[in-house]
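@channel sequence for tomorrow's demo:
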Amino acid sequence: MELHEGAYNTCWTATARQSETKSGKMYEPVGVRLPKMGYTEDEQLATKVWEWTQKELEAFK
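C-alpha cells (generated this afternoon):
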C-alpha cells in the first residue's frame, strides 16, 4: 500500500451505507472485512479502552 492510499478505508467507511459496515469490526482497504481476531472480539477489553478514553478526554471538556 502506498502512503496516499492510507485514507481509502476511512473515506469508504464514512460514505458507505450503514448496511455495508458493522460497528466495531476491522476492515482492510477497501471495505474488506478482516476475519475475527481475539483482541478485536474482546468485549471486556473494548469496555476498558472506552472507559480509559473517556477518562483521558475529561481534561478537554
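heads up for whoever presents: The mean pLDDT is 85.
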